[in-house]
Amino acid sequence: MNDVVLMHRSSEDTSDDEFRALFDASYARVVRTVYFVVHDLSVAEEITQDAFTELFRYWTRVRSYDRPESWVRRVAIRKAQREATRSGRRTRLERVAAPREIVHDEPSVPDPELMAAIRTLPPRQRAVLVLYYLEDRPMSEVADLVGCSPSTGFVQLHQARKRLAALLEEEVDGDVR
User: Fold this and answer.
1) Tens of pLDDT, residues 57-92
2) Which distant-in-sequence residues (6+ apart) come within 8 Å of 149 by Cβ?
3) Is the residue at 96 inside a domain?
4) Does any domain span residue 48?
5) Closest Cα to residue 97, out of 168, 171, 176?
6) What are the helix (H) ranges across the chain?
7) Of 42, 108, 135, 154, which has the most beta carbons under 10 Å away?
8) Do 128 and 157 form a contact (C-beta atoms < 8 A)?
9) By the 8 A CB rule, do 110 and 134 touch?
């Protein structure tokens, strides 16, 4: 019985050593790749750490793959793309919602035209949009606050953005003509 325990422990040690070797050999390369997607070193490092954490969780299965580094790189890139998409959306909305004048005694007010367009949204869409973008809350928290599932929250957010884009596009088209 002790031989079985020792073999199992030896197998774990080998597995840990293999993981450490892969981590040491590829961490910097994965961070660099992710950095080019998100353009923020601290975010790139965090995403890479998350990807390696996921790799460690599935290591017993992934270690037998021909190229485990490709697996962790794929996971990291997908996470980076989601983050870049989220931050890109936030950046665009922040530009549109930036206050025209800074009044130091009062809270900043987003563009009146944008606020008027937001007011036309149904209440749930409006709440999801404001909590997610203007208050920068994670969707899990937004969904909890609004009383829906996170997937429903993302659907509401998508519908709100689509409606706002149409409203603001009409406004721009109306000003041009």
Assistant:
1) 999 999 999 889 889 988 888 888 888 777 766 665
2) 143
3) no
4) yes
5) 168
6) 2-38, 41-57, 59-62, 68-97, 112-119, 123-129, 139-146, 150-176
7) 154
8) yes
9) yes
